[in-house]
Description:
Helices cover 34% and strands 24% of the residues. α3 packs parallel to α5. The longest helix is centred in the middle third of the chain and has 14 residues. The C terminus is likely disordered. The two termini are 29 Å apart. The chain is of the alpha/beta class. The chain has 9 helices and 10 strands.
Amino acid sequence: MSRPILSVKGLVKRFGGLVATDNVTLDVRPGEIHALIGPNGAGKTTLISQLVGELRPDAGTIELEGRGIGGLSTARRIRLGLARTFQITCLLPEYSVLDNVAIAIQIRQGHSFRFWGNVRHDKALREAAIGFLDTIGLAPRADEQVANLSHGEQKQLELAVALATEPRLLLLDEPMAGLGHTESRQMVELLKGLKSQVSMLLVEHDMDAVFALADRISVLVYGRVIATGTAGEIRDNPEVRAAYLGEGDEAC
Length: 252
């Protein structure tokens, strides 16, 4: 088996007496969509914040393609191939769709954000940005101001911005949040199409989307991973079903 893209071992994060992540161990394999699910308060956000460098763990290791990244800044992790999308879109609403992607490319290349104005006069940069927009189906909207996009289109754009950093691993933080049924189905198909390009760690409450997308699923409860397996294995796991009692039948 090839080396994991992401390897997390024994990750612990405490806030006073609260253990938010309790000896978390998981990995994401090349070409895999690995879903992370759990009830509200399970520690999913804390775990993602440690992976991207917003929080420093109290114990444990994080490796990206075999390289320890636990002590690196968020910016350094991005340059090494880690990208994140957010539950609430994090875009530049007053700029165009194309500008948002071109700025991401420019930052990936090591240029300061303050030079963003150059993107409108750099033909090669704009052509590269159009390529990413074409991948996610937004090329016809390239010149539209982001503020004029629908919520679903903004979610698509955020994916294009993340892809523009050329990640090895994409952390997807509830990409279905706020989407209607049709938009959710479109997002599922889009993510399926991207699977051949980038490995993904998917945090999501929409279990239909999780079961449609995930090669493996890890279940986080009270900061602990209680099970990891295929969709069928997770559905049939009695500990998982017990942990979700009171969360609604749709959870598993």
